[in-house]
Design a protein that fits this description.
DUF7882 domain-containing protein; DUF7882; alpha+beta; 2 helices
Length: 101
């Protein structure tokens, strides 16, 4: 299980390593181009019902933390799906099965 840390907050957004690795590629590419977008997810069971969204902008500090020492194999189609979503007004919605609490 990996984690995304947003801004100076120590609050973890837990995402499985494989999904996080794919998101990292898309996020880094978009931010390198100075493009902002949103990242959303539904709250996991055991959390208050609802969903969260963060605004990703080049000026906001991000940290990606992975449990596995070796990077996973990346699926170009999955990267393209996330990239296409990032280019919409709704941004990227992380599928429920990749959010871990």
């Amino acid at each position: 299980m990996g984690a995304l840390f947003y801004g100076s907050s120590e609050h973890r957004i837990d995402i499985d390593d494989v999904a996080l690795a794919h998101l990292k590629v898309v996020i880094a590419t978009k931010l390198r181009r100075n493009e902002s977008f949103t990242l959303s997810w539904r709250h996991d069971e055991g959390q208050p019902r609802g969903r969260s969204t963060i605004w990703l902008h080049p000026s906001v500090q991000l940290r990606f933390e992975f449990d596995e020492p070796e990077p996973p194999s990346l699926d170009p189609a999955r990267i393209q799906t996330y990239a296409n979503s990032a280019n919409t007004s709704g941004g990227i919605l992380v599928p429920d099965e990749h959010i871990l609490g």
